[in-house]
Amino acid sequence: MIRGKALALPILQGGMGVGISLDRLAGAVAACGGMGTISTALCGFQEPDFARDPKAADLRALARQVKHAKALAKGAGLVAVNAMVATTRYADSVRTALRAGADAVVCGAGLPRDLPGIAAEVPESDAALAPIVSSGRAAALICKLWDKHYHRVPDFVVLEGPLAGGHLGFSREDALEAQAGRPKPLSDLLHEVLTALVPFKEKYQHDIPVFVAGGVKDGAEMRRYMKEGAAGAQFATRFIATEECDASDGYKQALLNAKQEDITIVQSPVGMPGRALRSPLIQRAEAGTQPRPDRCIKCLVPCDFKTTPYCISKALVAARNGDWENGLFFCGANAGAVERLSTVREQMDQIMKEWRAAQ
User: Fold this and answer.
1) Residue 304's pLDDT is what?
2) What local confidence, expressed as pLDDT, does residue 333 receive?
3) Residue 55 domain boundaries
4) Out of 77, 136, 232, 287, which residue is the most buried by the measure of CB atoms under 10 Å away?
5) Euclidean distance between CA atoms 35 and 155, whole angstroms
6) Is residue 66 in a domain?
7) What is the pTM of this model?
8) Nearest Cα residue to 234 out of 202, 190, 274, 200
9) In what order do the strands lie in the sheet containing 166-167?
């Protein structure tokens, strides 16, 4: 149970922007009994007025996508949104998603210190609120802040390890160590987080489920982490190569073509390290030959238009559209294991089959 709502399967689908996990993917995962997640990051980039008014386009598209994903789910699972704290439309996106009926809000790329306060502005919503953390220290800090200022604690926590795709909550050194095959063990991080949550679970007299993410290969590994105290696992990259994923066929094919050696650590304009395919864009950025961006839509708080090596929004949109030359293709450390196109139902059934076999 998550804030009184049942999750039939212990599977979360990670939020992937820009345009990778929208209503079709999130709705399909929720229809199978898991938690499907819409990424709010530039989710309206296909709207006709996006270039002129990106904020209005994003918020309008987000409301429509949440409602459509819930319709696709037919009450079987939960529909969440992933709102990056680092985006300039973070608070507006949370409010919009809640008004549209999102079941949960998951926040990363920064500490969502004020998330309960933002959610309180939409009193008709009783959505679950969850931070993405990478350590017990971060989990404890969020709990202390929410307890002190809002008299509540997270409804669940997503623990993202150093083998995750996209932006990472680790130093570049830790990310490179993980890429070299020496990651901080997810089991150790899980123990840290579970220990950090104990006093808050005792104070509020309810559980705070922890879902592990980042490098969880399959249902067998999910089962192992659940034996160690996790409530389940979050998967992301494996859902890209599904028919329902909102990415283009070009993005899916780039993932299917990828070998393990094609995955690298990049330095994102957001200011965090990230994991992605080593596309020509990344190679040009590393060589210092990537042309500087010519415009800025001010989508990220920490991004400095004057110094950023490339526009991350433009690069993510290019990737979503299958532009291998100019795209930033985020992926997890196990992306090389994704070898065929499938469906969300097949992926969910496979994870649970592996989970049951591991008991």
Assistant:
1) 55
2) 87
3) 11-247+337-357
4) 77
5) 14
6) yes
7) 0.93
8) 190
9) 166-167, 273-277, 263-267
DSSP annotation of 182 reads: -
Task: State the Cα angle at 106 between 100 and 110, rounded to 5°.
Answer: 125
Judgement on whether residues 198 and 253 belong to the same structural domain of the protein? no
pLDDT digits (tens, 9 = 90+) for 119-159: 999 999 999 999 999 999 999 999 999 999 999 999 999 99
| One domain for residues 223 and 192 | yes
Mean pLDDT per 10-residue section of the chain, whose length is 359 residues? 89 92 97 96 88 92 97 95 88 96 92 95 96 95 97 97 81 72 87 97 96 93 97 96 95 93 84 87 83 59 56 83 92 89 97 92
Distance CA 105, CA 81 (A): 5
Distance CA 39, CA 62 (A): 9
What is the rounded end-to-end Cα distance, in angstroms, of the chain?
A: 22
Rg (CA), the chain: 19
Closest CA to 276 of 220, 216, 244, 236: 236
Q: Which two tokens stand for residue 298?
A: 């001010």
Number of Cβ within 10 Å of residue 293's Cβ equals: 18
Question: 297, 224 in Cβ contact below 8 A?
Answer: no
Helix intervals (H) in the chain? 23-31, 54-73, 90-100, 115-120, 136-150, 172-179, 186-204, 219-227, 249-257, 280-287, 312-320, 344-357
Cβ–Cβ under 8 Å, residues 124 and 102: no
Residue 306: predicted pLDDT: 55
pLDDT of residue 298: 55
Q: Which amino acid type is present at position 195?
A: T
Q: How many CB atoms lie within 10 A of CB 296?
A: 15
Q: Are residues 167 and 283 in the same domain?
A: no
Residue 5: inside a domain: no
Domain shared by 197 and 291, yes or no: no
In a domain, 329, yes or no: no
Distance between CA 57 and CA 71 in Å, rounded?
21
